[in-house]
Amino acid sequence: DDDDDDDDDDEYSEWTLRKCSAAALDIIASVYRDNLLPIILPLLKQVLGSDNWVVQESGMLALGAISEGCLNGMMQHLPEIVPFLFSCLESPRSLVRSITCWTLSRYAEWVARQPNFIQPTTYKLLERVLDNNKRVQEAACSAFATWEEEAKDHLVGHLPIILQSLAQAFDKYQVDENCDGICARVALTHPLCFLDSFPPFLSLS
After folding, report:
1. Burial letters for 53-65: b for 16+ Cβ neighbours within 10 Å, e otherwise?
2. Is 89 strand, coil or helix?
């Protein structure tokens, strides 16, 4: 059980020095772009490999913060980074799982262009949508909404499991606005597939 790290939730939900630092790093990355990578990559490798979950979580936040500014230079590393993110989604620490959802969504545009990552990304995020921790649920719903926008038609073959998972999420959360938004987008983008899979939602009305 990972409930012991939820005592720090307030620190992670408010605008703190931690979040200010991540925002600053985002801006620095947008200015210096790939020139930042020789400096930050060795540091990221060190902190992401830490046995201390707090240190690892901070590295995950930094990894997401540089995603837009340094994307071109990061592409060569992403084939190794994305499977690492998948493993972090299984972390026993809820705060690591939740920040990993966000970081994965920051690279969703690139991931959606990699056929071998479509299914595992979809399934891994859906697992977290059904996480027992509310913070992780919310982060996963937000990440999946981003993923759905980027992956688009690549998700057609996975719509049955997506809608089944969302139906379970509706039942589990007693309806969450993030989950509601994902269903709305799926219905608009793939109306026929949504209608074919609609019955599970009727029992929730």
Report:
1. beebbbbbbbbbb
2. coil
Q: Are 148 and 108 in contact (CB under 8 A)?
A: no
Is residue 119 a contact partner of residue 161, using CB atoms and an 8 Å limit?
A: no
Q: Which amino acid is at 109?
A: E
User: What stretches of 14-93 show up as alpha helix (H) in DSSP?
Assistant: 17-32, 37-48, 53-65, 71-74, 78-88
At residue 188, φ and ψ (nearest 5 deg) are -75, -40
Cα gap 134→129, rounded to integer Å: 9
Please give the pLDDT value at position 4.
45
3-state secondary structure of 69: coil
The string of pLDDT tens digits covering residues 136-175 is: 999 999 999 999 999 988 998 898 898 888 888 877 775 4
Say if residues 85 and 64 touch (Cβ distance below 8 Å).
Answer: no
Instruction: Show the CA angle centred on residue 120, arms to residues 117 and 160, nearest 5°.
Output: 115
d(C-alpha 27, C-alpha 66), whole Å: 8
Q: Which long-range contacts does 1-6 make (Cβ < 8 Å, 24+ apart)?
A: 2/92, 2/93, 2/94, 2/133, 3/94, 3/133, 5/53, 5/93, 5/94, 5/95, 6/94, 6/133, 6/135
At 18 the pLDDT is 86
